[in-house]
Design a protein that fits this description.
There is one protein chain. This protein has 314 residues and is α/β, with parallel strands linked by helices. The protein has helices spanning 11-19, 31-45, 56-72, 87-99, 115-122, 145-154, 163-177, 187-191, 213-226, 243-253, 286-298, 308-312, and strands at residues 2-5, 23-26, 78-82, 104-110, 157-161, 202-204, 230-238, 257-264, 274-282, 303-305. It has three domains: 2-45, no CATH class; 56-224, Rossmann fold, CATH 3.40.50; 228-312, ACT domain (Alpha-Beta Plaits, 2-Layer Sandwich). It is built from twelve helices and ten strands. A four-stranded parallel beta sheet has the order 5-4-3-6. The longest helix has 17 residues, at 56-72.
Amino acid sequence: ATIVMPKHTPLIKVNATKQYGAEVVLHGEIYDEAYQKAMELQQEHGYVFVHPFDDEDVIEGQGTIALEVLEELPDADVLLVPVGGGGIVSGIAAAAKLKNPSIKIIGVEPEGAASAIAALKEDHPVPLSEVATIADGTAVRQIGETTLKYIKKYVDEIVTVSDYELMEAFLLLVEKHKLVAENSGILPLAGLKKLDCKGKKAVAIVSGGNIDVLTISSMINKGLVLRGRIFTFSVNLPDKPGQLVAVSQMLADADANVIKLDHNQFKNLDRFHEVELQVTVETNGEEHIQHIIDTFKNNGYIIKRLNSSEILSE
């Protein structure tokens, strides 16, 4: 087999595929570009092409997931399923509805690659102008023709989640359940926050663990920032001795553990006699962060909280 994947596919997925004996070709930034390359190779070498999602046999195979879930939990009320090209949600929805017509199927796709919602709106598959998501396994510009038919027939609702919500869900899964999954695989878990499932038996299908160690580290750090467990702020200080000692004392009084300090005499050009200090501390959540802000304010210092996008871009 020759498998074509986007260039930025996690190395763990590439190596695992090679270990099964397949030749791997890396091409393009997203799935759709890899798909075009696969079609070129098919024409050139006369290969038999197996579509990753827009194929009845593939959809049927993925539907067996629903059979396994309902075997263990026959009275499930809601199934949440990731959506990329639509294969897994098509199979699961069709199989689940055959077993239990009253079960609710919710598809969850990334905000930056919401091809299913775009297709439902236009009533036919449409290419997105841009695809931008950390969920690389569901970074699909255009949903399949076949899968759209299944979605229209069997899927009750599709919700989207942001990259920030995915980071939160990743951290929750690691911290509470000691499970590591890839970003596309945790879409359903992130989607749970968008729904009112209180009192219902809801199943979030966590599908796929193709994530490398560096990405895991990055996701944990970013998730900690988003959940208020790490707090980064800047504060302007008079350019005179003793200021770092004062800051250290205030942080100690507020029970904040310092991770990083960046004292830059040349950064603040607006005020000649002031310097900017950037501080990163461990915190216990938003209440603790507010306590730190109040502690500094009571001592005459105004903190500027660095927002998620500023921190995540560094």
